[in-house]
Amino acid sequence: MIVTTKKLFEHAYGKYAIGAYNINNAEQIIGLFKGNIKSQSPFIIQISKGARSYTSKIMLEGLIRSADQMFPEAIFAVHLDHGDEQTCYDCIESGFYSSVMIDASSLSFDENVATTKRVVDAAHAKGIVVEAELGQLGGVEEHVSVSDADAKLTDPDSVKEFVSRTNVDSLAVAIGTSHGAFKFTGSQSLHFDVLAEIQNRVPGFPLVMHGSSSVPQDEVARINAAGGNLQGAKGVDDNQFKRAAQLGVTKINIDTDGRLVWTRVHREYFLEHPENFDLRPIGKVFMEEYANFIAAKNEKLGSAGQLDDVRKFLA
Asked: How far apart are CA 227 and CA 219, in angstroms?
């Protein structure tokens, strides 16, 4: 069942965070649904601008509709990740998305406000909720690329004004994470002091953490052992997710970790089965491995076991 992120956030706020997972193909979608049913978790399907053009937005939407029929017990939102203004309008008009993200964080504060407000007005008229971003995460994710020099933490003093002027439904904040597999070096970690100050400015308002893959070192090691070359990759400590949830984070974006699972499964499988040329055996392995990954991640988020309570809350 497709619902809005707003309803999911109302249930989750202060207790747990909901996993927002990027998908690109049928294998990811099946594994995603299986993993969330296995862990009894509500979830958010994230579709990026790149995913919409990888095969076709029509095909991707059709796959999700089919999965919704195959797994009728699932409760999830369909969300546009890192949309520009025109892509947001396209998703709003499609009638399929329950949530869109307008990323105008590279603009000045006033331009970000103006752009976000236009998207919010268009989305709310259709019953669709909107996420925006204030501050800038470093790193690279598809068409989003921000150097370390340009990355900046969200200013808590500006959050209340931004939310008030835009009427946005949730806000992605920069608290030290970054896109991609190379988030931290040394002992760097999340800026919980900044997050606490933001929550103080907008109590009860849903916050979002982008770039929150944990980049498991065992996955990196197995990829490298099977011929990969990921050196120095390090992500967010997923044991910190629940602390972030207590400070108002209701949605945590995870993309890179899923790509690492895909890479590890395929590298190991073809190394062990050099004679294979059939995509289906490896596809079956990946779907199960991805489902296990999703279920384990939901335990860290605190969303595991929440599905029945969410269903009652929505009734």
From this structure: 13
Q: State the average pLDDT for the chain.
A: 90
How far apart CA 72 and CA 308 sit, in angstroms, is 13
Nearest alpha carbon to residue 47 among 93, 96, 12, 4: 96
146 forms beta bridges with 139
- For the annotated binding site for dihydroxyacetone phosphate, the residues are 180, 211-213, 253-256
pLDDT band at 145 (very low <50, low <70, confident <90, very high): very low
Residue 148 has pLDDT above 90, yes or no: no
Query: Given the DSSP bridges, would you call strands 76-83 and 99-102 parallel, antiparallel or unpaired?
Result: parallel
Q: Give dist(CA 229, CA 219) in Å, integer.
A: 12
Per the annotation, binding residues for Zn(2+) are 82, 103, 133, 179, 210
Secondary structure letter of residue 143 according to DSSP: T
Q: What is the pLDDT of residues 271-307, one digit of tens each?
A: 999 999 999 999 999 999 999 999 999 999 999 999 9
Residue 60 phi/psi, 5-degree rounding, is -60, -45
Q: pTM (2 decimals)?
A: 0.91
- Residues 7, 132: Cα–Cα separation, whole Å: 17
Residue 81 falls in the annotated catalytic set: yes
Q: Which of 45, 42, 5, 8 is nearest to 29 (CA)?
A: 45
Class assignment of domain 5-314?
alpha beta
pLDDT tens digit string along 112-124?
A: 999 999 999 999 9
Q: How far is CA 91 from CA 12, 76, 101, 245, in A?
A: 25, 17, 10, 28
Active-site position among 68, 81, 121, 237 = 81
- Please check whether residue 131 is in contact with residue 172, taking contact to mean a CB–CB distance below 8 angstroms: yes
